[in-house]
Write a structure and sequence with these properties.
This protein is mostly beta strands and 124 residues long. The protein is built from no helices and 11 strands. A hairpin with a 6-residue loop joins strand 4 and strand 5.
């Protein structure tokens, strides 16, 4: 089993940056593809990006491509989401998720474990 804890959320002005972290428990973190999702108020949770377990491939939602970057440090059991040029529409609760697979997925039902989420608020 994997436990995930996100951190790094907060309030930032439009155009600013934040870096989210997701720390995983267990010794098998490197076996999991990791994803980031977000949920805005009143909306369904949506895919943000994902990274393979060896970090050789990433995938991003069109809305964040070129602004957000996912990376991971398997020695620290941590995955990161660097968010630049933030927009008010990026506001939401951000979740990290783990998928026991070598392949990234945009489908939340294909992820086995989820964190509790961290709030990101971007003011205009």
């Amino acid at each position: 089993q994997v436990q995930l804890v996100e951190s790094g959320g907060g309030l930032v002005q439009a155009g600013g940056s934040l870096r989210l972290s997701c720390a995983a428990s267990g010794r098998t973190f490197s076996s999991y593809t990791m994803g980031w999702f977000r949920q805005a108020p009143g909306k369904e949770r949506e895919f943000v990006g994902a990274i393979t377990r060896s970090a050789d491939s990433t995938s991003y939602a069109f809305s964040v491509e070129g602004r957000f970057t996912i990376s991971r440090d398997n020695a620290k059991n941590t995955v990161y989401l660097q968010m630049n040029s933030l927009k008010p529409e990026d506001t939401g609760v951000y979740y990290c998720a783990a998928r026991y697979s070598t392949i990234v997925s945009r489908r939340e039902w294909e992820y086995n474990y989820w964190g509790q989420g961290t709030q990101v608020t971007v003011s205009s």
